[in-house]
């Protein structure tokens, strides 16, 4: 399953596992910040 993810989503999953579950993880994409999965 991990191979099916884009490099950005692989990075997201890796970071998501390394921070507390009650912390929001935002990714900057160009001029915007994006949240994915349970953070959205």
Highlighted features:
alpha+beta; 30% helix; 40 residues
Question: How would you sum up this structure, described in words?
Answer:
The protein is an alpha+beta fold and 40 residues long. The chain has one domain. It is built from 1 helix and 2 strands; from the N terminus they run αββ. The longest helix is centred in the N-terminal third of the chain and has 12 residues, at 7-18.
Query: Helix fraction?
Result: 25-40%
Total of domains: 1
Low-confidence stretches: none
Mean of residue pLDDT values = 91
| Backbone shape | globular
> What is the N-to-C succession of helices and strands?
HEE
Work out the strand percent: 15-25%
* Major sheet: 2 strands, antiparallel
Can you lay out the helices and strands and say which pair or pack?
Blueprint (H helix, E strand, L loop, with lengths): L6 H12 L8 E3 L2 E3 L6
Antiparallel strand pairs: 1-2
Kindly summarize this structure in a few lines:
With 40 residues, the protein is an alpha+beta fold. It is 30% helix and 15% strand.
């Amino acid at each position: 399953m991990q191979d099916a993810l884009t490099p950005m989503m692989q990075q997201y999953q890796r970071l998501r596992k390394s921070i507390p579950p009650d912390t929001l993880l935002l990714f900057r994409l160009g001029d915007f910040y994006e949240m994915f999965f349970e953070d959205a």
